[in-house]
């Protein structure tokens, strides 16, 4: 993996469930790590659903290998939050390709 292409700061976040004062489950996101990444736009789409316009942007991120990444995580890059759709290993412990979707409503 070429380090010169890792020019974006990416924050990996993991979902955690906590309880509020009333015993209800509350979903929160905690920062797992902040890493350097390569951002590769894949496609963008816009559609009209439920009386409003919804835009989706699919993006692929490449990061160095880590042992704690999961498809259940999410990533934040340049203030935009992306839901992780898939994680694929590059080579043998060389890095990860993270496929993610950002949604704007």
Shape: globular
Question: How big a fraction of the residues is strand?
Answer: over 45%
The largest β sheet comes out as: 6 strands, antiparallel, barrel
Task: Provide the spatial order of strands within the biggest beta sheet.
Answer: 1-2-3-6-5-4
SSE order in H/E notation? EEEEEE
Q: Write down how many β-strands occur, each being a DSSP E stretch of 2 or more residues.
A: 6
Helix content: under 10%
How many H/I helices?
A: 0
Distance between the termini: 35 Å
Q: Could you name the ranges where pLDDT drops below 50 across 5 or more consecutive residues?
A: none
Radius of gyration: 16 Å
Overall average residue pLDDT: 86
Specify the structural class: mainly beta
């Amino acid at each position: 993996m070429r380090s010169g292409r890792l020019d974006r700061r990416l924050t990996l976040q993991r979902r955690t469930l906590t309880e509020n004062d009333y015993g209800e489950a509350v979903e929160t996101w905690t920062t797992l790590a902040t890493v350097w990444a390569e951002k590769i736009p894949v496609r963008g789409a816009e559609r009209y659903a439920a009386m409003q316009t919804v835009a989706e942007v699919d993006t692929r991120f490449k990061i160095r290998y880590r042992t704690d990444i999961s498809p259940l995580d999410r990533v934040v890059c340049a203030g935009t939050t992306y839901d992780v759709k898939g994680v694929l290993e590059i080579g043998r412990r060389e890095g990860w390709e993270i496929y993610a979707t950002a949604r704007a409503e």
